[in-house]
Amino acid sequence: MAGQVRLLGSPEKLAEEIAGKVQRDIEAKVYSALEAARKIVEKAFEDNLKRLEEELRRSARSAREQIESYAARREVELRKKLARIRAEAVEEILGQALQQLRGRVSEEEYVSFLARKLEEAISRASKYSSELVVVPAEPDVEAVRKALKEVEIPRGVRVDLAGETIKGIGGFVLRASGGLSLDYRLEVVLASAIEEARSKIIEILFRT
Fold first, then answer.
1. Could you tell me which of 109, 110, 118, 129 has the C-alpha nearest to residue 152?
2. Among 3, 205, 32, 194, which Cα is nearest to 98's?
3. Which has the closest alpha carbon to 161: 178, 141, 188, 179?
4. DSSP assignment of the chain
5. Which candidate, 118, 88, 107, places its Cα nearest to that of 205?
6. Which residues have CB under 8 Å from 171's CB, separation 6+?
7. CA 93 – CA 31 distance, rounded (Å)
8. pLDDT digit string, tens, across residues 76-134
């Protein structure tokens, strides 16, 4: 004889309870699923936000480095240009000062000065060669020619005036066979005085 199942209480009430339990279970699962999905979405958003922030920082850093590099290059270029302009100004003033110096000395005094320098140079070079050539600086061709006539040439030594000139503000270069060359241009003879004058010009022009 088969067993019988007896339902206690109202079937409708039992059905409602079962339906309510199922609904609560479903709602709980839906809530859990929504929470899990929300966390996944939030994490993805945070990860993307971090990447975006990192990218922005990287871009800002790169832009800053480029700007700093450009500014540094421009500063170096400007410093070089300023230094070149200053150097040109100093040399121009120095050249004018030397030309004025030449103008204040009489021709006779200047020729005597060149003659003394020629005697000194010939005395030094004649120890190594008996054939010497005097190459005058461009502005001093006639002055050197006159000075050479006043010089007593050592016996056995030949001194000729070159047909060419050499660049310089004045003076001459004495050349001997064998490659010896003695530089008596004014910028060399007066080197220490010129350097002192150059320092003074820089001090006056650019002191702060």
1. 118
2. 194
3. 141
4. --------S-HHHHHHHHHHHHHHHHHHHHHHHHHHHHHHHHHHHHHHHHHHHHHHHHHHHHHHHHHHHHHHHHHHHHHHHHHHHHHHHHHHHHHHHHHHHHHHS-HHHHHHHHHHHHHHHHHHHTTT-SEEEEEEBGGGHHHHHHHHHHS-PPTT-EEEE-SS-B-SSSEEEEEETTS-EEEEEHHHHTHHHHHHHHHHHHHHHH--
5. 88
6. 114, 117, 136, 137, 140, 144, 184, 185, 186, 187, 188, 189
7. 91
8. 887 888 788 878 887 888 878 777 777 777 889 999 999 999 999 999 999 888 999 99
Mean pLDDT on 182-202: 87
The residue whose two tokens read 């005395």 is: 123
Mean pLDDT estimate for the chain: 81
Given a contact cutoff of 8 angstroms between Cβ atoms, the answer to whether 197 and 86 are in contact is no
Select the highest-mean-pLDDT range: 38-42, 59-63, 87-91.
Answer: 87-91
pTM above 0.85, yes or no: no
